[in-house]
Amino acid sequence: MTTPPRTPRTRADAVAAHTSAEAGIDAVAVERFYAAHMQLLDDGAASAWARTFTDDATFASPSMAEPVRGRDGIEAGARAAVAGRAAAGEVHRHWVTMTVVRPAEDGADAVSHVEILATPRDGAPRIELSCVMRDRLVRGNGALLVAERVITRDDRPHG
Question: For residues 146 and 107, what is the distance between their CA atoms, to the nearest angstrom?
Fold first, then answer.
């Protein structure tokens, strides 16, 4: 049985598919990026993780009074989080799931569900947090970078 080629449903879908492919930022590239990106954070490599953001990136989360601006501030926050987990004797794993990627003028917008699994030494794993992560992704030096990240917690959906 021969399957006919899949065609976009609308002209907008066709443009989006073409633009995304043209920009080289597709769902597979984004999924691979997030796998490496989150493993850096989970492994405690705060500096390497921060380098996956643009120099002028912003990072906003309901747990922060103000968004963090710039790679240096993002790295400082990551270092503090890594130290906090070490002091608590916990390992955290960030699971990025159900990512939807849409082309944007300067790259792509990605919306994902993220669960953070926390495992204490000699303890049972638990879901620490469930949230939505909205990223603006751009290309820089041939690699994907986060230009803007906004986190919304599921237990506080409006901030």
Answer: 10
CA distance 61 to 154: 12
- Which range among 22-26, 58-62, 97-101 shows the weakest confidence by mean pLDDT? 22-26
pTM for the full predicted model: 0.82
Structure tokens, 146: 């986060």
Residue 27: which of 108, 82, 145, 118 has the closest Cα?
108
Between the CA of residue 24 and those of 13, 78, 92, 143, what are the distances in Å?
16, 28, 31, 10
Q: Tell me how far apart the alpha carbons of residues 67 and 7 are, in angstroms, rounded to a whole number.
A: 41
Is residue 19 very low, low, confident or very high in pLDDT (cuts 50, 70, 90)? very low
Distance from the first to the final alpha carbon of the chain: 51
**Angle of CA points 152, 24, 58, to nearest 5°:** 30
3-state helix, strand, coil in the chain (%, to 5): 35, 40, 25
Q: Which residues of 102-135 are buried (b: 16+ CB within 10 A; e: fewer)?
A: ebbeebbbbebebebbbeeeeeeeeeebebebeb
Residue pLDDT, tens place only, 29-84? 999 999 999 999 999 999 999 999 999 999 999 888 899 999 999 999 999 999 99
